[in-house]
């Protein structure tokens, strides 16, 4: 999981510092073991030879970002901006990193900075639109999207973002049309494919499965489309198909709690109590605060005649979620007040 340790306040302070002067900034090459790893060291060595070159800082930042070392990447992107604040990408790099790490308000000044330098920067316009969508300022979002489209009418992401806005505005016709346009332009637009899958599932149309599969193939790092595919089968009571999908997910990522939980739920429907118990027990290890998993482990214990273990699980579930009425009912059923 990516983690950004620099606060928005610190990033804002660095933003001010970057803008204060056009003089060459003082450069301090910090020491950190991460800078000496095999994939990062070549960039570190290049920086030692020419620490005043902003492109060197950007290259190492890109490598750090790729390695999920976002806090270190942010420092390098900021150093590049300090050295040369006249390049739009120096601003947008920071904005992108902050936005990806959910610091939406912190990202906004950097996208604005990029657009001040290059108003035709399509990607910064679209990032700006994402920020505006997040805060539900749809007028400004449309303005940014349409500005980008005037530069290039074939921007798949732009139509996807329009689809998101129309979906939130409950305009289904325009929303679906926008998602379809996004996919026509770029058949590998995973976000638009996933949204079309949701739409077909809402219509009870099995075409949803194709869209979920295509969305996953377009971006195999994102398991959400596979999970949606599994849920589609599960809701249709096609349990064997659903189990195969969940096993596929676990094959890619063993610590995916929802896949284990849903396997347990299906095993419970099929009276495979031992397998169900094992699945729910594993979920409680992966996600200790998952009250439903603890409750269902208790249900398995109860059905297998392990009364005291069941009571312990139901009490634990209530400790996590005090308003869980089914756990209260189960305790009363077992004679525990």
Structure description:
This protein has 19 helices and no strands. The protein is mostly helical. The chain has helices at 8-20, 41-49, 54-66, 70-83, 88-100, 104-117, 122-134, 138-151, 156-168, 172-185, 190-202, 207-218, 224-235, 239-252, 257-269, 273-286, 291-303, 307-320, 325-333. The protein is globular and about 70 Å long.
CATH H-level homologous superfamily name of the largest domain: Tetratricopeptide repeat domain
Question: What class do helices, strands and sheet pairing give?
Answer: mainly alpha
Instruction: Count the beta strands.
Output: 0
Shape: globular
The quaternary structure here is: single chain
How many domains? The number is 3
**Rounded average pLDDT:** 91
CATH class of the largest domain: Mainly Alpha
Total count of helical runs of at least 4 residues? 19
Span between termini: 42 Å
List the helices and strands and how they pair.
Elements: H1 8-20, H2 41-49, H3 54-66, H4 70-83, H5 88-100, H6 104-117, H7 122-134, H8 138-151, H9 156-168, H10 172-185, H11 190-202, H12 207-218, H13 224-235, H14 239-252, H15 257-269, H16 273-286, H17 291-303, H18 307-320, H19 325-333
Helix pairs in contact: 1-4, 1-6, 2-3, 3-4, 4-5, 5-6, 6-7, 7-8, 7-9, 8-9, 9-10, 10-11, 11-12, 12-13, 13-14, 14-15, 15-16, 16-17, 17-18, 18-19
